[in-house]
Amino acid sequence: MRKHQQLRAWQQAMDLVVLIYSMTANFPLTEQCGLTSQMQRAAVSVASNIAEGAARGSLSELETQCQIAQRLGYTADISALEMAINALFSQLGGLIKHLKASL
């Protein structure tokens, strides 16, 4: 479990995303491109920004968004994505160490 996933704020933000998507599912179709979209994007942004700020930037943000997609039932299995993200986290860690050592 990554550092940001242990944060209560991130956990609550992830729960909020599910609640917002559930609530906006009942909005009129005329709001699909308006209020519905804006509220959903804002909810995803909260969780994503917590992850991005607490861990390795956009990769943590992407990981959060994959987990949101899974929570919303858009995809059943994100294990291949998680493996790719974990591999990239490792590579980034090595790159950061290398760059710091060469300074």
From TrEMBL:
* Signal peptide span: none
SUPFAM superfamilies given in the database record = IVS-encoded protein-like
Task: Check the record and name the NCBIfam families matching this protein.
Answer: four helix bundle protein
The protein here is known as 23Sr RNA protein
Q: Which organism is it from?
A: Halomonas citrativorans
- Which lineage ranks, top first, belong to the organism behind this chain? Bacteria, Pseudomonadati, Pseudomonadota, Gammaproteobacteria, Oceanospirillales
